[in-house]
Write a structure and sequence with these properties.
The chain has 163 residues and is an all-alpha fold. The protein has one domain. Helix content is 75%, strand content 0%. The chain has six helices and no strands. α1 crosses α5, α2 packs antiparallel against α4 and α3 packs parallel to α4. The longest helix has 29 residues. 7% of the residues are buried.
Length: 163
């Protein structure tokens, strides 16, 4: 492959920045929504309902890609990246600030993907992966430790949900 030019670098950098904004933004907006009258279920419905409607024409044209994914791959995408994951994170945002959720979610995803890739995809758990995952796990532990290892409401993160 040829060396990318500056326009391709700029395009890649903008795509990376866009992805970072989307991933960090949804956690902040979800936390804000939970501080109002929305529930984790409401936020998940909004997230997947709007995204589903926007992508429906593309899905209609292209299909589910079952020829490349297979049913197991499609199930892994739906269950691993879909509503269960979003509901779990949204429920966690009831008890933790968005800063913790952003760091813990970003750390937990690679750990879970690596742990599932070994038995399901038969990927090798190389020494480099072990070191990387150990560092990520150390970061997750440091965040939990800095929060006092407590689970539940604290004075800095508590709020009164609307009933």
């Amino acid at each position: 492959m040829s060396n990318p030019n500056s326009a391709e670098y700029m395009r890649g950098a903008l795509c990376g920045l866009g992805a970072a904004c989307i991933w960090s933004g949804w956690i902040v907006v979800a936390r804000l929504g939970l501080r109002t009258s929305l529930t984790p279920w409401d936020i998940a419905a909004l997230r997947f309902g709007v995204g589903g409607l926007l992508l429906l024409p593309y899905l209609w044209r292209k299909g589910l890609a079952l020829d490349r994914l297979g049913w197991l791959g499609l199930a892994a995408l739906v269950l691993g990246c879909g509503a269960p994951m979003v509901l779990l994170v949204n429920a966690g945002l009831l008890f933790a600030p968005a800063a913790h959720a952003g760091a813990l979610f970003s750390g937990a995803v690679p750990i879970m993907v690596a742990l599932l890739a070994v038995p399901i995809l038969h990927e090798a758990f190389t020494p480099a992966k072990r070191v990387g995952l150990a560092l990520v796990l150390a970061g997750v532990i440091a965040i939990v430790w800095s929060a006092g290892g407590s689970i539940g409401f604290s004075s800095s993160t508590s709020f009164a949900p609307n009933s």
